[in-house]
Design goal:
- This protein has a five-stranded antiparallel β-sheet. Strands 5-4-3-13-7 form a five-stranded mixed β-sheet.
- It is of the alpha+beta class.
- It is elongated and about 85 Å long.
- It contains ten helices and 18 strands.
Length: 380
């Protein structure tokens, strides 16, 4: 094994799953303690007997008793090379994640604000095959754990049914499907997400059945690119993640590569958007419809109305009222990966002289020429 190239020192205190033990194996190989490496890998296999990557490394160590190792995965030619390449890819994904751990003061730029009922958020870094779990601490994200994941065999950015890709976007968990209701293929259970969401539908994307789920009972983990588009975790990892999931509440943000920022920059961005949001609400209450409509982008579309139709409708509705009051609670702001807009969702308590209602609303706010405006608005 090209040990110097493969060795990556783990930040062991934060390692999830078997990576801490895996790192210990490779550290022993690096200093040519092959006996210690064998002890460690056998202990790893004892703990996770269906962990195929550990078995491959053990095979390398056995091979090293007769001749020096020159590459990772010295197995007989009868073993399909594609299986060996899959295991190599998994090893590199797991170990790079340990090498590239985010600094404690960095957070994904997507989580501008979580609302009070959202206890956790999940963020997937597709390039690193990694799922990060964040706890909501006073509306701000705090990193608590991360896990290796398998994604779509044809990559990311799902657009159509059957393309075997994982979507990119802001989603939430919609259900908990226990293992008793599923085949063994899904392992410890499954958590569907709401793909396609409103933005996907606007772009004509289709397909369904994107889940977070486990692995078959005879498999510890799968290669980085092996699913039909789902996010797949080892069963123990899925169970750990599942303890943080709230149905209908937990955000699942899937990015091609997480953009990290510091808390100060995140708070500055949040305050700017929060100010624009408060101005929109105040202008709606003022019944100055012209001023209210300045908060909507030229490209605005509700899914049923463009800006012109929306404006005509709002002028007619607001003109028939003598007063309007709009109260907002459970406000969340999540930046959409790869896009320049933020998904803003909130409970809206609307009261007026001739109509009152309460609803959960979603808006997409986009920053153009330094100004925040609404690109989409509708009920959740």
């Amino acid at each position: 094994m090209a040990a110097a190239a493969l060795l990556i020192f783990a930040s062991a205190g934060f390692a999830a799953g078997p990576e801490k033990a895996l790192s210990g194996v490779l550290e022993a190989i690096e200093v040519n303690r092959l006996d210690l490496a064998m002890q460690r890998v056998e202990a790893l296999i004892a703990a996770h007997p269906n962990f195929r990557l550990a078995h491959l490394i053990r095979g390398d160590l056995l091979f090293a008793r007769g001749r020096p190792l020159e590459t990772f995965g010295n197995v007989p030619k009868t073993v399909p090379r594609e299986k060996v390449e899959d295991l190599r890819a998994e090893a590199l994904s797991r170990l790079r994640a340990l090498r590239d751990r985010p600094n404690a003061d960095r957070v994904p730029r997507y989580m501008l604000q979580l609302h009070s009922d959202q206890k956790h958020a999940l963020v997937v870094d597709s390039r690193r095959s990694r799922l990060y779990v964040f706890e909501n601490v006073g509306g701000r994200p705090q990193f608590i754990a991360d896990y290796y994941v398998t994604l779509g065999k044809n990559g990311i950015e799902k657009t159509r049914e059957g393309d075997q890709k994982t979507p990119i976007g802001v989603y939430h968990v919609t259900a908990n499907l226990p293992r008793q209701k599923l085949s063994d293929f899904y392992g410890a259970g499954a958590y569907p997400i709401n793909y396609p969401n409103a933005w996907d539908k606007r772009l004509g994307r289709n397909g369904h059945g994107i889940w977070l789920h486990g692995t078959p009972s005879d498999t510890y983990s799968r290669p980085p690119r092996a699913s039909d588009g789902c996010i797949v975790l080892a069963n123990a990892d899925l169970e750990a993640v599942g303890r943080t999931v709230q149905i209908g509440l937990t955000p699942v943000i899937i990015a091609d590569e997480i953009e990290w920022t510091d808390a100060t920059a995140l708070e500055s961005e949040r305050k700017g958007l929060a100010g624009a949001f408060d101005a929109w609400r105040a202008d709606w209450e003022s019944r100055d419809t012209g001023k209210y409509l300045t908060h909507y982008a030229a490209r605005f579309n509700s899914g049923e109305q463009d800006l012109a139709a929306w404006s005509e409708h709002k002028r007619k509705v607001n003109g028939a009222k003598s007063w309007i009051k709009v109260a907002v609670s459970r406000l969340a702001m999540l930046q959409y990966p790869r896009e320049s807009f933020v998904v803003v969702s909130f409970d809206q308590d609307y009261r007026s002289s001739n109509l009152s209602n309460v609803m959960r609303k979603r808006q997409y706010w986009i920053k153009e020429d330094g100004r925040w405006q609404i690109l989409y608005e509708g009920g959740e």
